[in-house]
Write a structure and sequence with these properties.
Layout (H helix, E strand, L loop, with lengths): L4 H13 L16 E2 L4 E2 L23 H19 L10 H19 L8 H15 L1 H4 L6 H7 L14 E2 L3 H5 L2 E4 L12 H13 L17 H4 L15 E14 L26 E8 L4 H12 L4 E9 L9 H26 L13 H5 L3 H9 L12 H21 L10 H4 L6 H4 L3 H25 L4 H25 L10 H15 L1 H4 L3 H4 L21 H17 L1 H4 L1 H26 L11 H12 L6 H19 L8 H20 L18 H28 L4 H6 L4 H6 L1 H17 L9 H37 L4 H5 L14 H8 L41
Helix pairs in contact: 2-3, 2-4, 11-18, 13-32, 14-17, 14-31, 14-32, 17-22, 17-26, 17-28, 18-19, 18-31, 18-32, 24-26, 24-28, 26-28, 27-28, 31-32
């Protein structure tokens, strides 16, 4: 924190007195001694509250005479106002408010507006008008001319909570952009006048401090003159001519940081860029300013750097925008809107065709070529999406629905907690906020990803073994084709939305950063997400040719899809020996399970890496862990293969129910061990996983890191597998009642699209923030609940366009040959008679299954083959989920 000392000093200066400008000089004027309780004006000395000491003013370089005279005019206006304050300065009094605006302007102008001597002629003209207007502010306000007050009022000013990390003062974005000034002549007829009612409200607020607590001004006539409703100022017999001006408000977000070499690598980061970078994030201080639209960002940056260099600071980014800056549509946005409109129209047309062909005399049309259009039916797909199946269906694992949705909700919560740190008011509080053990629910949320790897391994094993056992063959082409058809369309649509129309929904101080970072990077590196290789390429993205702050992916969280797909491709090599050589296959599966645990442990030990994704403030260590362990398939295979064991156990129980029979003590032991493992993995790392520097947070020994890093993900997968297996076999009790409730089914069907759209929508929300928010876990839960509603709504649209129709088209185009049905074993076509609950579950497991979706976000249903009680091979939601290998 010692490196932050000059930064805090600057903030204190900005808060009250402004920066010293010994090199450039401010006001070389002389004035009377005035002490009005707010600032001290010394005789024969420069303005003390601008940070220029009396002993240094003679050493100032030559200053432009016009600039000095403008500042002197404002200074004299301040003196006059203060001399009229008989009882001292009264907060929010009319004169006090005007004086506060004028002194604030002089305090901060050198960092909030460009230097008059170094700007283009149009900017110089408008800046001159601003200086003059500030000098005549007490005359302009009674006439309804409030734009100078708005200009200063919209500036972000540093205040309370600096030591807690409140170093991003964004000001008021909309207030700045709504300024419009047109002054063609020397009179005071400006276009920026507030409506009569608004001016009256402002005047009553200004006068409120002068009234008694029980005395509220009575507005007898809502349409009375503005001058009578505004605060009274003493008439000033002097010229009030304002120079010509013609500009709009231009909002600029300024981010500055230490100019020291060790912080330069962090200057490329955008907000939000990395989840945790504290206390380094305190080195990125930001504030919003408002200047004329005729001035350029470069002119403001040159003025700022000249001032900041005195305290070893520099401008790291400067993003400016005017009203409706991005509202003009370009070819990319038009393309996205047109494609989205076409796809949405297709859903509506298909729904109309679906309704028309419902009548009996038109039923035959549904079997012809029209059926391919009906696959896009909005009404049918929406009905299937929201359907609740309350019956007990064979070969269905209903507990997966709840586990899937709860896990994706946990992912969204973790992302919300991580990325919103960059827009919080109290970032320095995180050291204490993350210390309690319960905070691991947020800080250790990446375990939810291992839950999905476990579900993938379980479903792929059940599907692959079932199909190969039934057909006696394995078709890798269809195995891969099913995967691509299942994943690509929603990914492609999500990439399209991010690259084209997402920026139109972003507004606020960070909007320009969203366009230059997320949108621009997405349009250049979209192929990483489509190729499902993000996890392998992203560690080398620093070698790509991209600008500062530019993102390297549209959907950075699709690294998970890359890992999952790569493991999916090698699973046949691991599982097929189980079909032909059971004992050798089990040994083979056990071997690779052991390798999946040893590999991350060995890498962590060899490179001295973190055992998990910790919150310790060490960007280099964090990046090394992510690149070498977190995103690599050979280090994330542990829970995947553990899920494969669970799938094989359930598969064996179908042909031999005695294998799945557990005595009461076995059930009790299983639940006890599973709960203990879940709690140990989640909370056991708490002493080492909270925000702080490496010197503040205890570090694991190498042996501890190797043990935990190698085992904890596989152990988590084993505990989750027990929950699934126990609930499937009827040993779940109240847990099964909750997890198997039908209410989870619609959310589960949306989970894949929720996963794809969640982070982009969270980015849109975070980049649209207008004011920093107080960070607490309660607030994060509330924010997550709110953003989940938006994510769910967008996910429904994405699913209806790109997921549900493709699933139906796949079944039509890759329908199972009829001769495969004729080879069904006799026991698969018998009627199942009612039996007690536990036996019923084990009896259901004897039914052989077809291919279930290998994606953990897909339906949890393992579709039964045609039986006497299920002749159509449909899943409970009415769709054919048969896939082929």
């Amino acid at each position: 924190m010692k490196d932050l000392a000059p930064l805090v000093f600057v903030l204190v200066c900005l808060t009250r007195g402004g920066l010293a400008r010994s090199a450039s000089g401010w006001i070389n004027t002389r004035h009377r001694d005035v002490d009005s309780g707010g600032g001290i004006f010394a005789v024969e000395s420069p303005l003390r509250w601008t940070g220029v000491e009396a002993d240094n003013w003679k050493e100032e370089e030559e200053v432009d005479d016009e600039t000095a005279s403008l500042r002197e005019a404002i200074l004299k206006a301040v003196q006059r106002n203060r001399s009229q304050e008989v009882h001292g300065r009264i907060p929010m009094s009319p004169a006090g408010h005007v004086t506060s605006a004028q002194t604030t302007f002089l305090d901060l102008v050198h960092l909030y507006l460009p230097d008059l001597t170094k700007v283009n002629p149009h900017c110089r003209r408008d800046l001159t008008a601003i200086y003059t207007a500030m000098a005549h502010l007490s005359t302009m306000i009674p006439k309804g001319e409030l734009w100078p007050l708005q200009l200063v009022d919209s500036w972000g000013k540093f205040g309370d909570g600096l030591l807690l990390g409140n170093v991003k003062q964004l000001g008021f974005f909309e207030e700045c952009l709504n300024i419009r000034v047109f002054q063609p002549s020397s009179d005071l007829k400006m276009s920026q006048k507030l409506p009569l009612q608004s001016v009256g409200v402002l005047s009553r607020l200004l006068n409120a401090a002068q009234q008694s607590h029980n005395s509220i001004p009575d507005q007898k006539d809502a349409n009375r003159r503005v001058s009578s409703d505004l605060p009274s100022f003493k008439a000033e017999k002097r010229s009030t001519a304002i120079p010509p001006a013609d500009f709009s408000g231009q909002y600029c977000l300024v981010t500055y940081a230490s100019a020291k070499e060790k912080l330069k690598p962090l200057l490329n980061l955008r907000t939000p860029a990395l989840p945790i970078l504290l206390p380094q994030t305190l080195s990125f201080m930001a504030y919003g300013t408002c200047m004329p639209s005729t001035c350029t960002p470069l002119e403001l940056q040159e003025t700022m750097n000249e001032t900041l260099q005195e305290v070893e600071l520099k401008v790291s980014s400067l993003d400016c925008q005017v009203k409706n800056h991005r509202h003009s549509l370009h070819s990319s946005e038009i393309t996205g809107i047109v494609l989205l409109a076409v796809l949405t129209s297709l859903l509506v047309v298909a729904a109309c065709a679906d309704q028309v062909t419902q009548y009996e005399e038109r039923q035959h049309l549904r079997e012809g070529p029209l059926r391919y259009l009906l696959a896009f039916s909005l009404t049918t797909n929406l009905h299937k999406m929201m359907h609740l199946e309350t019956r007990k269906v064979p070969d269905v694992i209903p507990s997966i629905h709840a586990i899937r949705f709860l896990s994706i909700g946990w992912v969204v919560l973790g992302h919300q907690c991580a990325y919103s740190i960059q827009t919080s008011q109290n970032a320095a509080d995180l050291h204490e906020l993350t210390k309690p053990t319960y905070a691991q629910i947020m800080t250790n949320a990446d375990l939810s990803v291992d839950t999905f790897f476990t579900l993938s391994g379980l479903l792929v094993t059940l599907a692959l073994l079932g199909v190969v056992t039934r057909t006696g063959r394995f078709n890798f082409f269809l195995y891969l084709l099913h995967r691509l058809l299942r994943l690509w369309p929603p990914v492609a649509l999500s990439v399209l939305l991010v690259a084209t129309v997402s920026g139109l929904a972003v507004t606020g101080p960070y909007a320009e950063q969203y366009w230059t970072s997320v949108v621009k990077g997405c349009r250049q590196f979209w192929w990483m997400d489509i190729s499902l290789t993000t996890n392998l390429i992203y560690p080398y993205s620093s070698h790509f040719h991209k600008e500062k702050g530019e993102a390297a992916s549209c959907l950075p969280h699709t690294w998970y899809l890359g890992v999952d797909t790569q493991l999916y491709l090698v699973m046949p090599l691991v599982l097929l020996p189980l079909v032909w050589w059971r004992r050798r296959g089990l040994a083979w599966l056990g071997f690779w399970t052991a390798v999946s645990v040893i590999t991350p442990a060995a890498i962590i030990g060899a490179y001295q890496l973190w055992p998990a994704s910790l919150q310790v403030v060490d960007p280099l260590a964090q990046q090394q862990y992510v690149d070498k362990v977190y995103m690599m398939p050979w280090c994330r295979a542990g829970p995947y293969l553990v899920g494969a064991w669970a799938g094989y156990f359930i598969y064996c129980g179908r042909s031999n129910p005695s294998v799945t029979h557990l005595s009461p003590w076995q059930r009790f032991l299983g639940w006890g061990v599973a709960m203990g493992v879940l709690l140990a993995v989640l909370f056991g790392i708490a002493p080492y996983n909270y925000v702080g520097t490496p010197s503040e947070v205890p570090q694991m020994s190498t042996a501890e890191a190797v043990l935990y890093g190698g085992v904890h993900r596989a152990a988590w997968g084993a505990a989750v597998s027990w929950v699934i297996v126990a609930c499937t076999l009827g040993y779940g009790g109240p847990v099964a009642y909750i997890l198997e409730h039908p209410i989870w089914q619609p959310f589960s069907r949306l989970s894949y699209c929720i996963y794809l759209t969640s982070l982009p929508i969270q980015y849109v929300v975070l980049y649209s923030i207008k004011r920093p928010a107080f960070y607490s876990f309660y607030n994060k839960v509330q924010e997550t609940a709110g953003v989940m509603l938006v994510i769910a709504a967008v996910s429904v649209l994405v699913s209806l366009i790109s997921e549900s129709p493709i699933i139906r088209l796949e079944k039509m185009l890759l329908r199972r040959p009829t001769e495969a049905r004729s080879r069904l074993p006799p026991e698969d076509t018998t009627t199942i008679t009612p039996v007690p609950h536990h036996d019923q579950r084990r009896r259901n497991l004897r039914l052989s299954s077809t291919m279930a979706s290998p994606v953990p976000f897909a339906s949890a249903t393992v579709t039964p083959k045609a039986t006497a009680t299920s002749p159509t091979s449909r899943t409970p939601d009415g769709t054919h989920l048969t896939a082929y290998i």
